[in-house]
Amino acid sequence: GQQVMQIPQYQHVQEGEDFTTYCNSSTTLSNIQWYKQRPGGHPVFLIQLVKSGEVKKQKRLTFQFGEAKKNSSLHITATQTTDVGTYFCAGGNTGGFKTIFGAGTRLFVKA
Amino acid sequence: GAVVSQHPSWVICKSGTSVKIECRSLDFQATTMFWYRQFPKQSLMLMATSNEGSKATYEQGVEKDKFLINHASLTLSTLTVTSAHPEDSSFYICSASRTGTGTFGSGTRLTVV
Questions:
Q1: Which residue among B36, B43, B100 places its CB closest to the CB of A102?
Q2: CA A3, CA B40: separation in Å to the nearest integer?
Q3: Rg (CA), chain B
């Protein structure tokens, strides 16, 4: 079945450093979504990418969708302590709304 | 924006009892609702997909007789954990979708003692 792999599992950074998490799907995706989950909270939708090669920015966050629509990345520039949490990618398959989540990358930011 | 309400936010129940969790889309009609389970420090695992008025589609390994899903209207879906056991203790979360991008509820933390 469809699998979505996400790396790294966790990352510790010093405040001000950059951070990137990568997502790879075993199949071509119709879209990819990114979520942030704070400890004890629920996933909060960040963005959805649909087009091949698409790049979107939200302030310090840059999201990319690969040309083959099988991989994606989230890059945070100059991390802040408020960026702490787990970032999940979620791949949507073609022909339906089924969404499979990656394992998540837990970001720790040291002030 | 789209708002999804999930109730209760937490519940403690005795082993062998059943627990019902509600998921409501407050300001939109959700044609599809998803139910996920999340164990501590793990990802969200899709349990089932339900479309209003039809039977839910369960993921492999999810017991449909144990996790009863009802999607009777475009704004309400329920998940009932029947004969709950301690291993069912988890964080259950719904996602309601109208056009493909779902909005998550706030989740329900179930503890079975």
A1: B43
A2: 20
A3: 13
- Per-residue model confidence as pLDDT tens digits over B55-98: 899 999 999 999 999 988 889 999 999 999 999 999 999 998 87
> What six digits make up the tokens of B71?
């999607």
> Which residues is B70 bridged to in the sheet?
B78
CA nearest to B90, candidates B18, B12, B24: B12
- How distant is the Cα of A24 from the closest Cα of chain B, in angstroms? 15
**Strand runs labelled E in chain A:** 4-7, 10-14, 19-25, 31-37, 44-49, 55-58, 61-65, 71-76, 85-92, 99-101, 105-110
pLDDT, residue A45, reads 87
Query: Taking CB atoms and an 8 Å cutoff, what residues of chain A touch B95?
Result: 99
